[in-house]
Design brief:
Layout: H1 3-42, H2 50-73, H3 85-114, H4 124-128, H5 139-154, H6 161-177, H7 183-204, H8 206-212, H9 214-234, H10 253-267, H11 273-281, H12 284-304, H13 310-334, H14 344-351
Length: 352
Amino acid sequence: MSRAEQSRAEQSRAERIEWIDFGKGITVLMVVLGHVLLGLFESNRFEASETILLFVTQILYLYHIPVFFALSGFFFKPISNTSHLWTYIKQKTIALGIPYLFYSVIQFALQSIGGASVRNAASLSDLFNIYQTPLGVSWYLYVLWWLYLVLGILSLWIKKVKHWMLVAIVAFCIAIFLPIEIYIVQKLLLWAFFFILGYWLRQSGIYKILEEKWEVVSIVSIAIISVFMVFWQMSNPEFYISYDTPGSWGLIFPVSVFVAFAVYPVMSQLDGIGNYFRGIGKDSIVIYLLHAPIVSVTRIILLKLGIDNVVLHILLGLAVGWYGSVLALYLMKRVPYCDFVFYPLKYIKKQK
């Protein structure tokens, strides 16, 4: 291989990593918008707009969390031998556990202050029970830690990519058709599929084909999702498809992953939007945690002020939730050790 070819190859690898950051950035924006819309729907204060609120919420919920798990799985590294297991578990526990504890305490405190204004208030017993039932949006961190733990241990025996996909498909089928009542078991069965799907797409090289055929993949995926949404709407839904027990409706979730892996590399190359969301993507999990209380507080304040225009709620909720989270992150990074609760390994490694 010539130096020019090596240079192009290295540049290509860098771009592919950057599009993952872009993907995380734009996907977390969808999470923020989804929570704004869901909060308005669950408030029961916008009856005239409930149908459209739920419809758009469902589109977003078909997409963002399945894609997030797949993007996380993209960089999954199986454990080579048992001597690395303890270090692996310790690092994942610190990296995900400290943000998890921090968010849980903040969520509980804000819900306690909010009192009757809060839709789903948490009790003190709920806070002490987070080892088995997470609060609010922190469930993603909780499930992600369990995924790293279980899949990391399994990786001591499972080495081939095709075997990983077989495990993922079996787990997904059980979660869809034979759901388990135990919370974390059901969550693992369901979301392991998307995590491993991201890993498989990278290891098999399929993601490169999706990128090359992004136009075809996009058209087909949008057509499938559009037909699905028609049938879903005809079922007179009362809520979005469960992230716990989706049933056969959950079979649509993987489509979102394929369209995301097809279009994100292309969108990442766009000037302006590409650079912006690549930067956000590096801190996507922080935005994910920070936005939830900000969005809730914004909605409560607007309702208390008597503002009942749904469009205004959406625009202000999204703007305050997004830029409020970005600003909070910016300020935390400027104060020494303030961002420890989100990046604990950074400081622990420095001390070593």
